[in-house]
Specification:
Strand content: under 5%
InterPro entries: UPF0718_permease (IPR053166)
Oligomer: single chain
Structural class: mainly alpha
Organism: Sporotomaculum syntrophicum
Protein name: Permease
Keywords: Membrane, Transmembrane, Transmembrane helix
Transmembrane segments: 12-35
Largest sheet: none
Order of helices and strands: HHH
């Protein structure tokens, strides 16, 4: 009986986490789509290839951490 309760609890936990991750994925994908629609690729390239490459690397790492999709 105790094992069945643990399995049901694990199933509920999985469904909650899966639902949260799906909503997060949809939300972030929507925001990235908006950014790609309104910011031209040339602007992003200019920002990323400034003379100080270290700053561009930090910006790229931050954007990659925020939107790993």
């Amino acid at each position: 009986m105790f094992e069945l309760n643990n399995l049901a609890e694990a199933g509920r936990f999985f469904l909650v986490i899966a639902g949260e991750l799906i909503l997060l994925f949809i939300g972030v994908s929507f925001l990235v789509g908006l950014l790609q629609e309104f910011i031209p690729p040339e602007t992003i390239q200019k920002v990323m290839t400034r003379q100080k490459k270290f700053i561009g690397n930090i910006i790229g790492a931050a954007l990659g951490a925020l939107t790993p999709f």
